[in-house]
What does this fold into?
Amino acid sequence: MRLTQHLGWMAFCVILAGGLVGCSRDPNVRKQKYFESGNRYYQKGQYREAAIQYGNALQVDPRFAPAHFRLGLVDEKLGAWNMAYSELATAVDLQPEFLKARLEMGNMLLAAGQLDRVKEQVEFILRRDPANVDGEQLLANLYAAQDKTDDAVREMRKAIDLAPDRPSSYINLAVLLINQKKLAEAERNLHKAVELDPKSTAPLLALASFYQQSGRWSEAERQLRQAIQLDPNDAKPRAALSRVYLAQNKRSDAEQTLIQAKKEMGDNPEGYRMLGEYYLSLGDTGRALDEFASLHRDHPKDRQVEDNYIQLLLMKGKLAEAEQLNSAILETHPRDAAALVSKGQILLKRGKNSEAADALQQALRNDSNNAMAHYQLGLAFDAMGKSDRADSEWQQAIRLQPDMSDAYRALAMMAMRKNDTTGLMDNSQQLIRLLPSSADGYVLRASAEFDRELVDDAQRDIAKARQLAPQNASPYVLLGKFQLTQKRFKEAESVFEQALQRDPNSTDAMRGLIAAYTGEGQSDKVLSRIEAQIAKVPGNASFHYLDGIVLARKRDLPGAENQLQKAVQLDPNGFEAIAALGQIEVARGSVDEGIAEYRQALLQKPQELRFYVLLGILLESKAEWQEAERVYQRALQLQPDYAPAANNLAYLMVQHGENIDVALGLAQTARRALPDSPNVADTLGWIYCEKGLNGLAIDLLEEAVKGTPTDAILQYHLGLAYQRNKDLEKARLHLERALQLAPDLPQGPEIRKVLSTAAIDDSKG
It folds into this structure.
């Protein structure tokens, strides 16, 4: 009996075990377990863990649409917008009737301003489910984005009729009514939302925001204090309360609110980080650094705190401390994308642009959707002179993180350098949209408006920038630059002085002031004014550099050298001062010393391509053209598309009868990178001339001469191109002009011979 029972129990266990094994091997069960685990992580706000579990579910079944949908939601939370949209679109492709996925896609498209595509989604949703409340709300928001406010309000009222107990619908309607200036009705709808969901902080936050916009500060404060009481562990009401105080310029109350939050929410990262983030938002990097140093001691495992601390150390120039912390992370996590990005930033600040690019590209191999890595890689490429690749990286950063203001600022600055007014206008407007309380966007937009001669608009933007940031020098610098273009030198002088009062270290303001003095014919004031500013801020390397340049122009070479050496001591990475020291040696008649200066600079900075070009030019001046070619080739080994080296090498090759097709390729490379350079146009035009392509040559050489009409060599090249094209009248015009500009031109005998031949041909004619 016992044996029978024992065997029966064993059989039951075997059956049970078999059943369990069978279940664990069932892919539907496995994917569902991963999916449910992902949902639990998502509910706790552990989004990276959720992403792993949804990914595991998709490894079991790549066509599991709900996992694609949830992974899209996770990517949204993590700010990976492109990936989020891709996952949502996959969910819809796999399951076209997946209306929740379509709704989320519609909301993302709405945020991106792609209104036609929003319309496609909302029409599909409402065809399939005319009573879909979320669909009606999306349609209302679409109408609002199209400035069809009446239609938007109508659709929101319809959504409320369909589901009168949804608080979010009343909040949405209130926002639309505020746009219609129907404030009393908006307030009633917000109170209705609070009434429907009295235990939620969201309606209270919305009502507080309404009161804040209306300037009803005490009522806003009351709602937020109620929200804090309702959920003491929710950081959002405390953050909103600090903003209410800040809007009233009650900084001590705002700060105290966040100090209290840190004390009462010691285990909540959102709570204890807020004070440091507040200091950062004010631009008070000193107190922010102290706060995050303290947080790092108290919460050493919080990577967000550690990353912020490292970033602040970088902002304050404490590279050694930042590197020590960051290296410790990379020792244990060598593929950590955030740490690799910080490594790239450290290398960038040390002027090691190529190594920085390598670190950032490694970060992107590990995390291709890291927007900050793309942004920083753009900075590295920009520093290396690769503007097209920089532009591409910044555009990708924005695609991944549409609210990355730094990327828009970088694109605007690049557009300004390229005289691309459209790009400058577009990117500055995006910056204003993202940071309406920051002066930067208004200053950049004003620059574009000045370029378009929209002077009144520019003046308004400058006034706005001054209002937002009274101590910011940038609006004054921009206004001064505009006044210089108008030859209003006295006014420009006054404005640049005001800029220097606000920012005594402003190199742009000092350069502008020098230009104003020069325009007024008061160059004698320049030196004393620079030295007065150096007395105020002796640690500014740029001012010592400017002082050195002015002294050099006055032929005070020892004084110039002294100031330039001080500039290099203060900023060892400063290219301009080191380059100028080499030119001082040349001015003394010692080209060899200048060459030695640049060779020494290259020992210190072997990645600095501009030193190769300066060295090559001096070697050319000594007729050491073969050594100059080797120097240019070394630069091109470091960066094959480096235009100045490619141009100079191409010119030397054609001058000395080397492979003209290789020279042509180099010149075309330079032309693509520097399409507006007269020297580059001349090199390519001269090569076409040597190849017998006279029509192409003349077009480029005319462009070069137009850009630099006083360059005798350019006139000589154009004259020969016309002579070879049998246009003797134009040939004579430009060849004679070459001799007028430089009677001792080495090509003089050849020019006179050509002119003599042309005269004979004319007499025969």
Notes: The radius of gyration is 34 Å. The domain at 641-765 is CATH 1.25.40.10 (Serine Threonine Protein Phosphatase 5, Tetratricopeptide repeat). Residues 1-24 have pLDDT under 50 and may be disordered.
